[in-house]
Amino acid sequence: MKILILEDHPIFRFGLRHLILEKWPDAKIGEASSLIEAYPKIKSDNWDIALVDLNLQDTQGVESVSRLKRVAPDLRILVVSLHTESAYATQILRIGAKGYLNKENATEELIDAIQKVISGKLYISTSLAEHMTHLLIDRNAKLPHETLAVQEYRVMLQIASGTKIIQIAKDMSLSPKTISTYRMRILEKMGLTSNLDLAKYCTEHKLN
């Protein structure tokens, strides 16, 4: 089994490695603290799964998954994050990740999550399943950010983090005009008026 750990905190990487080797002593484990560090490892080997944090040295939020899928479309990704499932999980799954695990539950659920993802299934925790069921039953209960399309969501997070439109366009391989259009749609859908409002919203809902 080959598992790549993409996580910028050495102590948490150590903890994940320990849990994996307890279950699979012969597993090959690769480590990276950033996307730039991970890219050559992804291209040089066939990994069964990548465990990916959302807050890395060179990207944050759904961008980490989006960029990895761009480089390695077939890579199975299990997100392991401090953010609650309701903040990111539905968007992450839409982008192509195969599961979402809160770091607080990693000790109890990591092995089961890895096994499910490697076997071709999605890993959805009990709390995430409850959240998704709630959204299906009552679509009017969606929070404003949950009404955004995937691309809009990505743009929202980058704007909220202070990234300039030109840089967002470069990161997403789109034109600045397209990003500006996304920005207007986002503000309209969420009932906000400025980038500062977006930043406050994301902070309040723990999206950054």
UniProtKB/TrEMBL annotation:
InterPro entries hit by this protein: CheY-like_superfamily, NreC/VraR/RcsB-like_REC, Sig_transdc_resp-reg_C-effctor, Sig_transdc_resp-reg_receiver, Tscrpt_reg_LuxR_C, WalR-like
Residues bearing PTM 4-aspartylphosphate: D53
An example Gene Ontology molecular-function term: DNA binding
Keyword field: DNA-binding, Phosphoprotein, Transcription, Transcription regulation
SUPFAM superfamilies found in the cross-reference section: C-terminal effector domain of the bipartite response regulators, CheY-like
GO terms of biological process kind: phosphorelay signal transduction system; regulation of DNA-templated transcription
Residue intervals of the Response regulatory domain: 2-118
CDD domains membership: REC_NarL-like (cd17535)
Annotated Pfam families: GerE, Response_reg
Protein name: Response regulator transcription factor
Organism whose genome encodes this protein: Undibacterium nitidum
